[in-house]
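Hi R.,

As promised on Friday, here is the backbone we talked about, encoded as structure tokens. Could you run it through your design pipeline when you get a chance and send me back a sequence?
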């Protein structure tokens, strides 16, 4: 089974602007917490900064589907919701910084992956082989994420009438003859 490297359009600088602009309300909210003892305005700024950083990650995941788990995308909305329950200022600051850092790392990972991918032809009637250390989402081919080996997610893909597997790095399959 031969993996072929292909060029894939990535999110590129589309994620940069919302991620950079998310720092302004985030820092504003942190400064209000630091100097004015919080309040609803600080909470609004922190939540708005988190949602701007989520927009950046959302743009990246739409440009490169199947590479980010849904739970990663849910961190920001839940954190923003929790902030409006008005926990103490230092708790708000820690929660906002942690959620923004998760979004930043996700955006950085998507930017690092952009540009190349590996694909191989696949017969959908053939069950997926057992790969040591893999976490399976599906045992049969489907046009969605199929399994994960470490940070590498293998996805089913249809392109130009062909049925393929796509991954961020090539994987060696070992078929057992029984």
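Update: got your reply. Pasting your designed sequence below so it's all in one thread:
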């Amino acid at each position: 089974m031969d993996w072929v490297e292909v060029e894939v359009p990535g999110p590129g600088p589309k994620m940069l602007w919302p991620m950079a602009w998310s720092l302004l309300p985030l820092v504003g909210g942190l400064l209000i917490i630091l100097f004015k003892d919080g309040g609803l305005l600080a909470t609004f700024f922190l939540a708005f900064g988190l949602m701007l950083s989520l927009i950046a990650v959302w743009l990246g995941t739409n440009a490169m589907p199947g590479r980010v788990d849904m739970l990663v995308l849910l961190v920001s909305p839940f954190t923003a919701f929790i902030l409006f329950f008005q926990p103490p200022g230092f708790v708000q600051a820690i929660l906002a910084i942690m959620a923004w850092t998760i979004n930043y790392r996700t955006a950085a990972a998507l930017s690092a992956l952009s540009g190349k991918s590996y694909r191989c032809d696949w017969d959908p009637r053939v069950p997926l082989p057992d790969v040591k250390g893999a976490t399976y989402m599906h045992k049969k081919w489907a046009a969605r994420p199929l399994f994960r080996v470490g940070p590498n997610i293998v996805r089913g893909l249809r392109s130009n009438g062909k049925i393929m597997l796509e991954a961020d790095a090539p994987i060696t399959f070992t078929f057992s003859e029984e």
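One thing I noticed while checking it: The chain has a mean pLDDT of 88.

Thanks again,
M.
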